[in-house]
Amino acid sequence: MRAFTYERATDAPAAVAAVSRPGAKFISGGTNLLDLMKLEIEQPTHLVDISRLPLKDIEEVPGGGLRIGAQAANSDAAADARVRTRYPVLSQALVAGASGQLRNKASVGGNLLQRTRCPYFYDTAAGCNKRNPGAGCSAIDGINRAHAILGASEDCIATHPSDMAVAMTALEAQIELLGADQAARRVAIGEFYRLPGDTPHIETVLRPGEMITGVVLPPPPPGRQVYRKVRDRASYAFALVSVAAIVATERGTITGARVAFGGVAHKPWRSVEAEAALAGRPATMATYRAAAEAAMAHAVGRGDNDFKIDLAKRTLCRTLANAAQSG
Amino acid sequence: MTMIGQPINRVDGPLKVSGQATYAYEHWDAGQPLYGFILGATIGRGRITAIDTTRAEQSPGVRLVMTYRDAPAQGTRDVSIFSEYWRAQPKLSSPEVHHYGEPVALVVATTFEQARAAAHLVDVEYAVEPGNYDFAARQDQAYAPKVVNAGLETDTAVGDFESGFDTAAVKIDQRYTTPYQFSQPMEPNACMAVPHGDELTIYVSAQIVDAARNSVAGTLMIDGQRVHVVAPFIGGGFGSKLGIHSETILAALAARRLNQPVKVAMTRQQIFHLAGVRPTSSQRVRLGAGAGRTIGRHRPRGQHVYKPPRGVRRADRRHRSRPLRRSQPLDAPPADAARSSAGEDVARAGRSAGPAGSRVGDG
């Protein structure tokens, strides 16, 4: 671990001002950053602690939405009665992630920005374009069972590890940002993450020094919400495949659907193809299978992860059936 | 007899679950120890061509960076000693790399974090040699070891298997494979070595203290009476703690060099490479039976110890069997035991009987 200096920001404007110095990074719960610093994958020289900023509240917004402060703990967001009632897919996704101890410590903003768990990203002896641009990707021809099947590039096949962000993608959350110039802006979560392309080290559209201050959930769309996560262990494991689905039905016909996948891409993967294949169709397994085929039409396996294509299809079918029949 | 069927706690159970059991890495009797961190090879097979410890040595808190160039002379692995666990196991003894993760340096510093950070600053260059890694693809290289696990005969036979199998009315001929299996105990393999003049006390996570003592003494080339082993609790072993490994030898070498207590624990990842692996295996089983109900013939062909099940041996005096065992050299971590607490007799792991322990994957 490299030596670093530390300061605790007193308010959001001071935080973005403090992080403007070279080598500085924000630290919130630290559940990912500290691990990466110990392995010297992240090497900040200065940390600006934003975990005590007054950004923990979960509050109603006009028009029926909910705003979750960036510093709200994952466990608090998951347990919030309004989240559980109106956004159950988000509560389920949060509880599916990490462990109780980590959820108590991890913030909502930090969860959005956690880095991939690709083992080659963590192994400093391996080539990784994300950790060391231009160094090559050891995963593509390596042990890539956990890796991406959608939207990957020849430079990076890592996946985004968050469960929470998958649910937020299905919910079309808006991410509130405060810039180094003190200007606030909002970015839709669908626009927030980048695919790896030839710059896998750049993961979001965040500008230098920009800080996440909150997440705004629009009013929930009609329909039943379900999050389903498939993983190697029943607890404390990242998703091989996960699905956030919101399905509305009327007399056996799907009137609206939202579908997002986790564990399959460099970002939470919204499948508009699956949604289009569901809308207006009967709520039957044949429809779900067609949606699954549409969702995975461009999926590419890299060997060890070939199984994920079928797993994603089946997980989607099961999740849709669960959401539609119960709703 | 009165214990059978009774819910009886393990003697160490309450201490372990209440955090009062003191593990090897946690002893403070000798005061503040130094921390060692193992740097593993990043190639599968080859040779160190250059190793530069300058940056690591200049890193904060570093007290020692030991490599093959300055590690002391050590005893060699003596195959005349019956069990591997009692044998010397020299570390950092040559520039040769036999498997991925094999120690190429030990960095000792005031804190664990300093040692780990400095380990990243050891600059190692390798000449990579082609290695043998694919068990399934290279079974043509299988050879008959002189003896197999526990000193048993390599090939045995009862009766004439081939003619019996040829004429059997019912035949089964199947191949069964098992994957590599690893021991991953809760407590990582760890050791604190405390020098006292010519004597050495090792606090170590090892289940066979006599083996640990002999292995350390043989490696350090000192009288076993001068090595004291303290191992009050084991936080799980699953085979990996029958013998000692790099953590103990390297802690002992560094402690004697610095004349201070030094402790070394494997990281979770290092346990995969350095604490032994149950090898992958392939077993061809041929069974032949008469038209009646008895199985009379066996011909397993594989690497693991095999004995016909007792029931079969008793049931059919006419049984004929011819188990053959073969090993296959792989550039993989050394073969060792990996086991659960149950089912030992059906899951007996084979230990390499071949030469150059770290070279032989034992299948």
Low-confidence stretches of chain A: none
The percentage of residues in β strands of chain A lies in: 15-25%
Order of helices and strands of chain A: EHEHEEEHHHHHHHEEHEEEEEHHH
Structural class assignment of chain A: alpha+beta
Question: What's the layout of helices and strands?
Answer:
The complex is a heterodimer of chains A (327) and B (363).
Chain A: E1 5-8, H1 12-18, E2 24-27, H2 33-38, E3 46-49, E4 58-61, E5 65-69, H3 74-79, H4 81-86, H5 88-96, H6 100-105, H7 108-112, H8 119-122, H9 164-170, E6 174-178, E7 184-188, H10 189-192, E8 211-217, E9 224-230, E10 241-250, E11 253-262, E12 269-270, H11 272-278, H12 285-295, H13 307-326
Parallel strand pairs in A: 1-3, 2-3
Antiparallel strand pairs in A: 4-5, 5-8, 6-7, 6-8, 9-10, 10-11, 11-12
Helix pairs in contact in A: 5-9, 11-12, 12-13
Chain B: H1 13-17, E1 34-40, E2 46-52, H2 54-57, E3 62-66, E4 96-97, E5 103-109, H3 112-119, E6 123-128, E7 147-148, E8 152-153, H4 161-166, E9 170-178, E10 181-182, E11 190-196, E12 199-204, H5 209-220, E13 227-230, H6 246-258, E14 262-265, H7 268-274, E15 277-278, E16 281-289, E17 295-298, E18 301-302, H8 310-315, E19 320-321, E20 324-325
Parallel strand pairs in B: 1-14, 12-13, 17-19, 18-20
Antiparallel strand pairs in B: 1-5, 2-4, 2-6, 3-5, 7-8, 9-16, 10-15, 11-12, 11-14, 16-17
3D architecture notes:
The complex is a heterodimer of chains A (327) and B (363). Chain A is of the alpha+beta class. In chain A, 30% of the residues lie in helices and 20% in strands. In chain A, the strands form three sheets. Chain A has a five-stranded antiparallel sheet. Chain A has a four-stranded antiparallel sheet with strand order 9-10-11-12, sandwiched between helices. Chain A has a three-stranded parallel sheet with strand order 1-3-2, with no helix packed on it. The longest helix of chain A has 20 residues, at 307-326. Chain A is globular, with a radius of gyration of 19 Å. The mean pLDDT of chain A is 97. Chain B has a domain at 136-182 and 278-294 and 320-362. Chain B contains eight helices and 20 strands. The interface between A and B is small, with 7 and 6 residues.
